[in-house]
C-alpha cells in the first residue's frame, strides 16, 4: 500500500542518517507536484520528477553525459573576451553578477559546448544554462554558439542547440542585441554546409533567443511543458490587460500551432536525436547536385501551346 | 496637442514669444524687427546649447517625438513611383511595416519600414509601429523579391519593438522575427538600413542587418527600452533615465561600438524642427551608402554583410 511504502521510505531515511553523506541526505522538491525526491534519485532520473514527470532544469555536464554515446565527449574551448564591454551597473555591478554566476555554476558563461557522437553520428552540442544569469545571450554566449557551429562545419558534424534563456543580456546593451544576427550567420553556415541544425527548446526559452537561433532549426524539438515565446507572459498580460489562455506558450500549445515538430521526453531525447541525425545524415550527401540543372530551351523556338 | 518635451520648455517659450512679436508687428502697430532678430539669435544659441549635449534620455524623447518624420514622410520626400505591396500570403497585411517598389534618385529599389502613425486613427491603424508576425513575414517576402530582381533594399527602422500580444505569439512572433533577420543576411543586393527614430530590439534588428547601417544623430537603438530595462534591473520605471545612459543606446555610442556605420546629422534642434531638411540629409546619406556598394557582386555583398555581423561585439570593443 502506498502509505506503507512511504512510511518505510521515511524509516530507511532515519536509519541512513546515522552515516550520512551530503549527497544522500539532499532532498529536492518538485516545483510542480511538491513531492520530496532524493537528490540522487533526481539525478538518476535526469531531473525529471518520478512522480509527475515535470522536467526540471538540468546542469550542462549531466546533460552532455546523458546525450552523447557512452557518456563520452570533449569540451570545445571558446575564445575568451573581456567581460563587461559597456561598464554596466544597475543595482549591482555587472562584473560582480558575472563573478557570482561563475562561482555558483562553475561555468564561464551561459552557453557550454562539447562534441562527441550521438547515435554514432559526430555531433557538436551546445547547452544554454538558465542558472547562469537566466541563460541570457551576451557576447560570450554568442562566441560559444559561433565556436560550436564553426567546429561542426569544420568537422562535418551535426549541431544540436539546447536552449534555455530569458533572452538577450541587457547588461551588454546593443552588443547583446547584435548577437541575434551574429548567431543567425552561424546558422546559415550550417545550412550551406548541409549539416543538421537541431534545436531542443527547454523551459524557459523566450525573448531574443527565440527571435534568433532558437527558432531556426531544421528540426524543432521541445521538452514537455517548456515555456516558449517571444514576449514573456507578464509583458503580454500587462499589454493586453486580459488573462492568457490556459497552457499559453507551453510546448504543447506551440506544437498545436505548428511552431515545433515534436515534444520529446528527456529520457527519450538521446535516442530521438540519434535517430534524426542518422536519417538526416544518411542521404548520399556528396552526390547531390547543388542546384537542379534543367536543359535550357532551344533559342528561337517558342514552346508550342498544345 | 502640441508636444513639448520637458527639456525643450525654455526653447518653446522663446519660440512662442517670437511668434507673438511677429503677430504684433504684422498688425502694423509696433516695429519689433530688431527685437525679433535679437530673440531669434538667442533662440539659435539656446538650441545649439541644448542640442549639443543631449543626454541619452533626452535623445530617447527626441527619437520618439510625435512630429519627427515617419515612413510616409520619407517616402514622399525621397522616393518616386512608390508602388506599395501588401500581405504575407498567409494571414494578413500588417500596417506596422509598409513597403513596396519605388525609385530612389531614378534607380528602381525596394523600400520598406515601420510606420508609427501620427494621430489616434493612424496610430491604431499602424499599431504604433509595433509589428505582428505578418509584418515580418511580409518583410521576408519583399526581401526575397528584391533579391530576385536585383533591387537594392532600403529599410527605415522606427519601432518601439515587435508587438507583445496573444495573437502574435500564437502565430509565431519569435520565428517571424528570426526569419526576417535571416532574410536580411541572405540578400545578394545592397541593404541600407536607416535607424530614423526608435530602434527597438528584435523588432528593429529584423529589418536592420544591413551592409550599411545609418543612424540619425538623435535616434536610439537598443536591446530594450530604458523603461523596460529600469523595471527589470532597477525594479522601478523611475530609473529610466539612468537605464538610458547605462544601455549606451545613442548613435554616438553605437558608432564607437561599430554597430552602425554612419551618423546622419539632424537639423539644429532635431529632425522634428525641420523635417524637410532631415529627410534631405538622409537621402544624401543613403545615396552615398548605395554608391559605396555599387558594382559589388551578390556574393560579395552577402559575404561582407555576414562577416560584419559575425564580428559583432568582438571588434572595436575595449
The count of helical stretches of chain B stands at 14
CATH H-level superfamily of the largest domain in chain A: 2-enoyl-CoA Hydratase, Chain A, domain 1
Overall geometric form of chain B: globular
Instruction: Output mean pLDDT of chain B.
Output: 94
Largest interface by residue count?
A-B, 58 and 53 residues
Average pLDDT value of chain A?
88
Radius of gyration of chain A: 23 Å
Structural class of chain A: alpha/beta
Specify the helix fraction band of chain B: 40-55%
The CATH topology of the largest domain in chain A: 2-enoyl-CoA Hydratase, Chain A, domain 1
Q: How many DSSP E strands of chain A?
A: 9
Strand fraction of chain A equals: 15-25%
The main β sheet of chain A shows up as: 7 strands, mixed
Overview of the molecule:
The complex is a heterodimer of chains A (306) and B (318). In chain A, strands 3-4-5-6-7-8-9 form a seven-stranded mixed sheet, with helices on both faces. A two-stranded antiparallel sheet of chain A has the order 1-2. Helix content of chain A is 35%, strand content 16%. Chain A is an alpha/beta fold and 306 residues long. Chain A has helices at residues 2-16, 22-25, 39-44, 60-67, 94-105, 139-155, 173-177, 179-192, 233-240, 251-256, 269-280; strands at residues 27-29, 36-38, 73-75, 111-118, 121-128, 158-165, 197-205, 219-222, 262-263. Chain A folds into two domains: 1-56, no CATH class; 57-283 and 292-303, 2-enoyl-CoA Hydratase, Chain A, domain 1. The model of chain A is unreliable at 1-18 (pLDDT under 50). Chain B is α/β, with parallel strands linked by helices and 318 residues long. Chain B has helices spanning 9-26, 33-52, 56-63, 71-78, 120-125, 133-148, 166-170, 173-186, 201-205, 226-234, 240-247, 251-256, 275-293, 298-310; strands at 79-84, 97-104, 107-114, 153-159, 191-200, 212-216, 220-222, 262-264. In chain B, β2 and β3 (107-114) form a beta hairpin. The radius of gyration of chain B is 21 Å and the shape is globular. Chain B starts with 8 loop residues before the first helix and ends in an 8-residue tail after the last helix. Chains A and B meet through α6, α7, α8 and α9 of A and α7, α8, α9, α10 and α11 of B.
